[in-house]
Design brief:
This protein has 5 helices and 2 strands; from the N terminus they run αβαααβα. It is mainly alpha-helical. A two-stranded antiparallel sheet has the order 1-2.
């Protein structure tokens, strides 16, 4: 379920000035090349690209950012929630009362 949410709510973002070049690179680079370059980088292999298509895939990965603000638990969603809290503090003021729930570690099924 979380994988589905991540796939449905992840968007790609790039600078407006680079949009035409990025769109052309998406047309030129095949999905297999992007997959192989991403697998190499996940395995820690940051060697020089072997072909022109791999070079374009590297350029795409460098210029395009993934935005996942609507995926629960992602770094972007945490930033959005943090900004909402800051906005509430600016609007309503600093909260006067805090509640911290701390289950006893002996009886807690979570620990």
């Amino acid at each position: 379920l979380q994988r589905r949410t991540a796939l449905l709510h992840t968007h790609l973002k790039t600078k407006r000035s680079h949009f035409k070049q990025v769109a052309q690179r998406f047309v030129n680079v095949s999905a297999d090349t992007l997959r192989s370059v991403a697998e190499k980088q996940n395995n820690g292999d940051f060697s020089e690209p072997q072909s022109k298509e791999e070079q374009e895939a590297h350029d795409l990965l460098r210029e395009v950012r993934a935005v996942t603000q609507h995926v629960p638990g992602s770094a972007s969603s945490k930033t959005v929630m943090r900004n909402e809290i800051r906005g509430l503090i600016m609007d309503k003021g600093v909260p006067n009362f805090y509640i911290t729930v701390n289950p006893a570690d002996v009886y807690s099924p979570v620990l």
